[in-house]
Amino acid sequence: MSKILIIEDEESIAELEKDYLELSGFTVEIENSGDDGLKRALEEKFDLLILDLMLPGTDGFEICKRVRKVKNTPILMVSAKKEDIDKIRGLGLGADDYITKPFSPSELVARVKAHLARYERLIGSGVQENEIIEIRGLKIDKTARRVYVNGEERSFTTKEFDLLTFLAQNPNHVFTKEELFCRIWDMESVGDIATVTVHIKKIREKIEFNTSKPQYIETIWGVGYRFKV
Ligand code: CA
User: What's the longest Cα–Cα distance across the chain?
Assistant: First the structure.
């Protein structure tokens, strides 16, 4: 859930922006003074700032400059005057976008979405976080190819790991043994669907507390298996 801070002294405008953004699923907070807005923008974590230019106390120019020194949070600047927008551009304060009042709420929402998406792509490309699937006490680290049960690592063979991960990535989907065999073992492999049964048994021994009452991989009699969530 993306969190947005609106710094805007005209309360009716701030409330309107907030209403539309909340309708689009964002969490929104408002500050009406420049000083309080700057303080929160620096101290708290927001995913995007909507910044009015003319504010009592610290103005939008200053807030943009100060925030940009320490954070990459997308900043959407709002002004009633086209000339001010030109001025901000000229100053190169590091705002990501500019919008002139009056604007349509849908335009604001569209721009906010575009900047959040761009920022997420940027962050996503820079930070290499391990891809992890976590379900109840089971944790699958896809990047490191490790499996933990209640914090304890269990050792898995390549195929056991692939099979477990495939099922966990498609929760509640029932797969036949044939489907699983085709997905996890390449076609030239020696073996048959009994291989799947054997692997499921081994996986259960490693992750289940009670293998006769499995809480993760469920047998659907006459069909196949599914990962329960
Ligand atoms: Ca204002």
Answer: 75
The alpha carbon of 53 and the centre of ligand 1 are apart by a number of angstroms equal to: 6
Which residues have their alpha-adjacent CB atom under 5 A from ion ligand 1? 9, 52, 54
Q: How far, in Å, from the CA of 197 to the mean position of ligand 1? A: 67
Please enumerate in sequence order all residues whose Cβ is within 8 A of that of 228, keeping only pairs 6 or more positions apart, or say none: 171, 172, 215, 216, 217, 218
Taking the C-alpha atoms of residue 81 and residue 1, their distance in angstroms, rounded to an integer, is 32
Question: Distance between the two ends of the chain, CA-based, in angstroms?
Answer: 22
Output the CA–CA distances (angstroms, integers) from residue 153 to 134, 138, 140, 206, 209, in the order listed.
14, 10, 10, 10, 14
Q: Is there a contact between 50 and 24 (Cβ–Cβ < 8 Å)? A: no
CA of 216 to the centre of ligand 1 (A): 56
pLDDT tens digits, one per residue of 127-176? 555 688 888 899 999 888 999 999 889 999 999 999 999 999 999 999 99
